[in-house]
Specification:
By secondary structure, the protein is mainly β. Helices cover about 5% and strands about 45% of the residues. It contains one helix and eleven strands; from the N terminus they run E-E-E-E-E-E-E-E-E-H-E-E. The termini are far apart.
Length: about 130
């Protein structure tokens, strides 16, 4: 059974950092674009960052550019990470990772939840003093 699992969420003060991890079981992350989304109650799920399967394919929401970085670990089926720096209270949300077997233009598709085949259960990130 294909599953994704996020970890690394928690409570952090404004200006602090967290690193989220996304790991897969039942399938191989290497062949999928991996996206990070976040959601707050009453709002739609928002694309934060995405990494493709080829070098240099990284995409970010304007709200996190320069503060967040997405990366893949080394080795076969390594986890995907979201390094979050300079966190702000507005970054508070449940963060989800998702896997997409994308055949089209990822730069145009990555922000749509419909592009993704598998989703994790989410991890809470709270930025507060």
């Amino acid at each position: 059974q294909a599953q994704l699992a996020e970890s690394g969420g928690g409570l952090v003060q404004p200006g602090g950092s967290l690193r989220l991890s996304c790991a897969a079981s039942g399938f191989t992350l290497d062949y999928y674009a991996i996206g990070w989304f976040r959601q707050v109650p009453g709002k739609e799920r928002e694309g934060v960052a995405c990494i493709g399967t080829w070098a240099g394919a990284e995409f970010y929401a304007d709200s996190v550019k320069g503060r967040f970085a997405i990366s893949r670990g080394n080795g076969h089926n390594a986890a995907v990470y979201l390094q979050m720096n300079s966190l702000e209270p507005e970054d508070t949300a449940v963060y989800f990772c998702a896997a997409a077997y994308v055949s089209g233009e990822l730069s145009k598709l990555w922000t749509s939840t419909r592009s993704y085949d598998y989703w994790g259960q989410g991890t809470q990130v709270t930025v507060s003093s």
